[in-house]
Amino acid sequence: MAEKLAIRGGTRLIPEGTIKKWPPIDETDKKLVMESLLGANHAFGPNCNAFQEEFAAWNGNKYAITTNSGTAALHMCLVACDCGTGDEVIVPAYSWSSSATCVMQHNSIPVFVDIDFDSMNIDPDKIEQAITSKTKAIIAVHLHGLPAQMDRIMAIAKKHNLKVIEDACQAHGAKFDGKKVGTIGDCAAFSFNQNKCLCAGEGGMFVTDSEEMLEKARALWSFGETITDMKNRDYHVYSMGWMYRNSDLNAAFGRAQLKKLDDYLAYQRESTKHLTELLKDVPYLILPTSPQKCETNGYNYTIRFDLKAMGCEEDASEFRYKIIEALKAEGVETGVWQRFILPAMAVFQAKNGYGKGCPWHCPNAQEVDYSVEQYPMAQKHCDTHTGMTMPLRLPNDLKTVMLMADGFRKVMENIDQIK
Ligand SMILES: Cc1ncc(COP(=O)(O)O)c(C=O)c1O
Asked: Are the C-beta atoms of residues 374 and 112 closer than 8 Å to each other?
């Protein structure tokens, strides 16, 4: 007999309060954060220096600079790659907004490339047709913690003499062909915001193996100064700069969480695999794939609803929200991530960056077309997905994973009740 869905007045499956909050806090966090609080330096202090060194060692990079956001670290990548006025930078059509707006921050122009539906990452088959004489770099986003096809991307970059920036903001510890993300391209950005696998409250990290890139990024990071030794700082501005430094308190929190990151990631890999196993015979779900050579960090478990099979293709996005409401009513913690593909956002459609047409009408720029029909896979993904993060992370356990799977099964097997 059909079970009555909670949204139709049936009993809620998963009790309120089941999902524990992220990240787990223990004595390590309290000790490091309290020591910082009681210390003498609340700006860029000893924890910032230690955090940079420890993160570089953990990830396998020569150099790291801690920042106050992943977006700041991305902007530093652009500068490290010498992107400037009129230069074009290739970006996937579906990502977080600042994967693309970081390009405009240095007066360069994003050029979007559609995604591959299965991996949800940039489609390497479509990159070359977007390359022009103005192209300077490719931003490879490792979306939802799954590495982009880095072998293909690096080969294209080499052929066309382009730089590769890894947006690893969601992908701490993910691996492509056995190599950690952030060690494959020319430079990379990580984020440590609230939702990330390494949470420092807010914050980010710029990483590279190139000393030249390090120096360019460092100048932007601190007011355009180049002196790095605080004792010998000359307060002279040598180039255009921002204030992207991190605070000691955030770095202390980040250091404490970094000590536990490998355990977090090991659990996320287990919990996401387990969920795939439990969901594999649930109707109308398109589950995440594991492309060859790619090891996810399990950041955001992203499912697409097969709305065509349900006969609801016309109002796909609308019906997807109804399913999510039904899932939430059962206590399944899931939701839509980005509601718009990047080129459809007003900033690109109106070409409204710095005003007065910049950067699109700056000297050296050429016309770029943002008509949304060019990105059908990104749009399809955007309209049909739902994601899950916290229930699949510590301190939750595999019982929570089972409950989430039960919630999906209950709703999808009774989909007629919400049609
Ligand atoms: C793919 C991606 N890039 C960049 C960012 C920006 O990171 P932050 O919020 O730390 O600036 C995020 C943050 O959500 C992200 O998910």
From this structure: yes
Over residues 74-84, mean pLDDT: 97
Hey, what are 244's tokens? 């992207």
pTM of the model: 0.97
- Residue pair 285/384 in contact (Cβ under 8 Å)? The answer is no
Tell me which amino acid residue 7 is: I
Ligand 1 midpoint to CA 161 (Å): 27
Q: Is 216 in contact with 203 (CB distance < 8 Å)?
A: no
Rounded CA-CA distance 41/252 in Å is: 12
As given in the structure block, the two tokens for residue 280 are: 């594999």
CA distances 132 to 87, 90, 252, 366, 373, Å, are: 10, 10, 44, 10, 20
Q: Binning pLDDT at 50, 70 and 90, where does residue 294 land?
A: very high
* Separation of CA 39 and ligand 1 centre (Å): 30
CB 154 within 8 A of CB 140: no
The neighbour count for residue 125, using CB atoms within 10 Å, is: 12
Tell which atom from ligand 1 comes closest to the C-alpha of 195: 14
Question: If phi over 0 gives left and psi between -120 and 50 gives alpha, with beta otherwise, what is residue 201?
Answer: left
Residue 70 Cβ inside 6 Å of ligand 1? The answer reads yes
Pocket lining: 66 vs ligand 1, CB cutoff 6 Å = no
Residues 214-262 have pLDDT tens digits of 999 999 999 988 766 666 788 889 888 999 999 999 999 999 999 999 9
Structural domains for the chain: 6-21+266-338+379-418 (3.90.1150.10), 27-260 (3.40.640.10)
CA distances to 73, 108, 311, 348, 358 from 354, in Å = 20, 11, 44, 12, 5
How far does CA 35 lie from the centroid of its chain?
Answer: 31
Pairing of strands 385-388, 163-167: unpaired
